[in-house]
Amino acid sequence: MIDHINKLIFIHLEKAGGSSMEVIFTGREWWGLKDSHLQSIGYDGGQTKHINLRVAKIVYEPYIHSYRKFCIVRHPYTLFISKLNWFGYAGLITKHHIDQLIAQDKHRWNIDFLHEFLGPKNEYDFIIHFENYEADYYKMLETFGLDKDKFKLIHTFKASDGARYKSIVLSDEAKHRIQEYCREYANRFDYEL
User: Fold this and answer.
1) Which of 3, 18, 105, 166 has its CA 20 to 30 A from that of 79?
2) Is 37 within 8 Å of 166 (Cβ atoms)?
């Protein structure tokens, strides 16, 4: 997401509360917004909603060094549970389920490991941790000099309170696969696996 008014670039990691940022800063969700360059390189069907940092540096090239960049990170286990919930999974999750989601990430975003989506931590002016979402969000507004009343926090699609989400249990093999895929991401963004 790019916000030309406030000069912000948001790298939107899927299932980490990012749709709220799109609505707050641009007044709309970014589903369905396509870019011809993304379509030409086969990136996520041309969708602009989940542009990784590497691709953002190309698509937003005129602004990437002058706009402030931020992202939201989330613990790998709850990130995957949220993705599984989104796709309608429930109950015990196996390595096979996780492999399916990882294959989808590779196909959509051309990444082999989760840290490749966000890139290095030092590329960001602010990082919101999902686990401290509200406090981090308002700290970001303060850091960026943005009005907390104008940019009041909203939650668009909170699904973690639902019964299906709560029913999802990661097997040991599923956790091990997530650890392999997310090890460097966890190290970069201070999560224990």
Assistant:
1) 3
2) no
| pLDDT tens, residue by residue, 29-74 | 888 889 898 999 889 999 899 999 999 999 999 999 999 999 999 9
DSSP state of 69: E
Distance of CA 192 to the CA centre of its chain: 18
Q: Are 51 and 59 in contact (CB under 8 A)?
A: yes
**Which residue in the block uniquely carries the two structure tokens 């509200």?**
134
Strand partners, 2: 9
Burial letters 104-141, b for 16+ CB under 10 A, else e: ebeebbbbeebbbbbbeeeebebbbbbeebeebbbebb
Strands (E), the chain: 2-3, 8-11, 68-73, 92-93, 126-129, 169-170
Q: Which structure tokens are listed for 193?
A: 């696996």
At 130-159, the pLDDT tens digits run 999 999 999 999 999 999 999 999 875 566
